[in-house]
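Recap from last week: sequence in, structure out.
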Amino acid sequence: MRALLVLLLAGTAAMTHSPSASAFELFGFRLWGIGDDEDSDIVDPLNYTVSFTVEGDDERLQETLERASSLVQDVERPVSGSLGLLARARADREQLVAALFTEARYDGVVNITIDGRALDDIEPDAQFGAGPVPVAIVIDPGLVFTLGDISLNGDAADLVPAEFGLIPGGNASSRAVLRAEADIVRRLKEEGRPLATITGREVVADHDTATLDVSLAVSAGPVAGYGPTTVTGTDSMNPGFTAYVADLKEGRTYSPREIEEARDRLLALGVFSSVTVRQGEQLDANGQIPIEVEVSERKLRYFGFGATLSNTEGLGVEGYWGHRNLFGNAETLRIEGSIGQIGQEDIQDFDQLNYRASILFEKPGVIGPDSKFYSRFSSVYEHPDAYDRFAVGQSVGLSYQFTRAQSASVELSLEYEDVEDYYNPDGQRHLLASLPTQYVFDNRDNKLDPKRGFRALAFAQPAHDFLTGATFVKIRGEVSAYRAIDDAQRFVLAGRVATGSILGASVEEVPADMRFYAGGGGSVRGYNYQGIGPKDPEGNPIGGLSYMELSGELRIQVTDTIGIVPFLDAGTVSEGEFLESARFQMGAGLGLRYLTPFGPLRIDAAVPLNREPGDPSFAIYAGVGQAF
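Predicted structure tokens:
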């Protein structure tokens, strides 16, 4: 039995233990448990127990209210004496009433008792026993209200309430009303009115009819352009360049979308840890809205390391050093290197290890705030199953972000390489000039854990080999789509299809590293890296001129922090240009996700459904973010 295990290590982690609790931290975030240091500053600690009852038989409402209760969520943490318990209970009642309002239940009643006494009957200086003190929460949720009479007043004559979800008989939750207010203000601001606001709100709950009457007063304000942009918080960064990248040109009509895009552009520079773009509270003497950009800079220099461990590919280590703001205009310099296959069984000498090194320089804003020039020098000496390769190369390129969802890049690459593979056992030298060009459309709501949207990529790389005379073009396309199938977004369907072809040359003429391969954690799970496709007589992959991969997942969020993902992958590689004689191989498995503030931690276990000699019985992969 052959198994593949991958362990990814990066950053710092710490584990603390105590007789009653343990905690785990990764990258500075608490993943689970409670550390001793959290309770050390509590004066006169008092423990309590809590029972939580919601009348009726609504499990979803029960879960929602329990999540809103601090008494329930923090029951393992002691309070600071009897006064602390009273304070937490009173605050909890307000939170629970607010949670009922978000469920459109405006006549609900929250009753809290401590040690058998109603909360309102307990004196402020009451003292409870040594604990744990019994706390009981009983909630009568009441009726679900619907919207009744709706009116928009002031500068809202042209606005239709139904367009913002305000419909008689419709959703009357406080969340829906507040969302409608935000949408109304957004609509007016999109007309170029930066001072649009809700100036008054009158909400009346009629308990006899279980309806909610809503009256909103709206002030649109005048249409205005941007005023001067001022920048604060810069130290090493050029404030003028910061304003240039924000690209809120004085006099251009105000747009809330452009304000958001300006913040995204500034964060994408990598120089700032935080960016706030705010408008003035009133127009200036020229009738324009002043803009203030407040930033906080990150450390200029950084370094780090990581490691991978696999029982089939050995140990890999990598390190990097970088500078985020080389000349004051967010120029980036990054130097990195890695060594792989350390300790692998068939590795007998240092020259059989994998080595990579590169130097990357980036300069943003060369032909507009949304552009970036980059240059990369790289050197590779690697030995995957398909080939042995030594290469050095230089590339220069330009990327451009057309919109928040659309980007493109083009680069000129020159690479010298010496490759040994099945077709060239004595080695073949190449001097490749190529023009990799790429377009991406990506409107996913979250890059690491998308719930909706899709991503599409189109790639083309014309290439010419000056040493062999071969000319060919490599094309590739990929689409992934995501859709939540429930309102709470706990069930998400995710699918991915990728395909490509190399045109103009035979498989022997195309350098082995540029051919297509499939199999492994980022491809068809359950198989070895490059394990799917044509093989030589010894069972080593040789790559092909075309490929296709398909993946489907159902991402199920079981709790706020735990998810499971059943998945099915399929893929094929053909020596022909158009998947001639292609035979798909499939892998299936189950993944575990631990949801964190910086994205899900991923562990996937998969088995090959069309296992061939040399394929593992199962494979396990780990990483950060969803598989695709």
